[in-house]
Amino acid sequence: MTALDPNRFYMLYIYQGALLVFCLFIIYKILTRSKKRLNIVFSMVYIWSAVGLVLNMVFAFIIIEEIVLILDFLTNFSVAFAPIFLLIFNMILLKSEKYMNTPKQLGIIGVYALVLFLKIFFFVDDGVIVNESTDWFPIFSLAYLLYVIVISTLFTTIPILYTSYRIYKRFDDLDIKKRWKFFIVGVIGLILYMDFVFIANYTSNIIVSIGLSISLLGIFFYIYAMYYGVGRQLK
Questions:
Q1: Which H, E and C letters describe the chain, residue by residue?
Q2: Which end of the chain is more exposed for a tag (fewer CB within 10 A), N or C?
């Protein structure tokens, strides 16, 4: 197997290429509706996801171990970083933009970025191996995987789901509540997709493989469901 065998070429440049185009389309839709702060924050979820996809496509051409490791680190950082903007989006809806002002938003983003970046201490200690012996596929150590999953779960997954539920309970309009359910489903699907991708870099367990396959089939729906679910909030 080479760095660009047919299966990997399909996943990177056909499947992920289509996913990248779809993310760019959603970004365009969000920002053309309005360029207010709420829209910009929400679009950042898709922008950082797109950055991760681009980086992943770029380092497939490279077979220099040190460069591939750096690009893999940045790819994983970008993907894990994206959900923090979902949390900020939810907090703005709950508290208002006046309460969740720019300094508070930057503070939350900065703290999460720093804590997430600290995974580098696991990374440099053979946390990720990617070279000819792994057919240029990243292999995570258990410590590195657990750090990424635990940090993302505590800082983004749990707070996002909690604030999403609180927002849902505040809505009185049945149509808005129905649409918000799509948002919640999309968020859960996106989070599961990211977690399965990370876990698949550690193990090829059949359950993980099945979960990843289901997530791959549903990711287009999930990212659109989030956009559809918040439609009225972005006007």
A1: CCCCCHHHHHHHHHHHHHHHHHHHHHHHHHHHHCCCHHHHHHHHHHHHHHHHHHHHHHHHHCCCHHHHHHHHHHHHHHHHHCCHHHHHHHHHHHHCCCCCCHHHHHHHHHHHHHHHHCCHHHHHHHHEECCHHHCCCCEECHHHHHHHHHHHHHHHHHHHHHHHHHHHHHCCCHHHHHHHHHHHHHHHHHHHHHHHHHHHCCCCCHHHHHHHHHHHHHHHHHHHHHHHHCHHHHC
A2: C
How much is the pTM? Answer: 0.91
Tokens of 140: 């995570």
Beta-bridged to residue 139, according to DSSP, are 129
pLDDT at 123: 86
pLDDT digits (tens, 9 = 90+) for 92-106: 999 888 888 999 999
Backbone region of residue 84 per phi and psi (left: phi > 0; alpha: psi in -120 to 50; beta: other values): alpha
Structure tokens at 58: 């770029």
Judged on CB neighbours under 10 Å (0-12, 13-18, 19+), 221 is: middle
In angstroms, rounded to a whole number, what is the distance separating the alpha carbons of residues 82 and 43? 10
**58-87 pLDDT, tens digit each:** 877 788 888 999 999 999 999 999 999 999
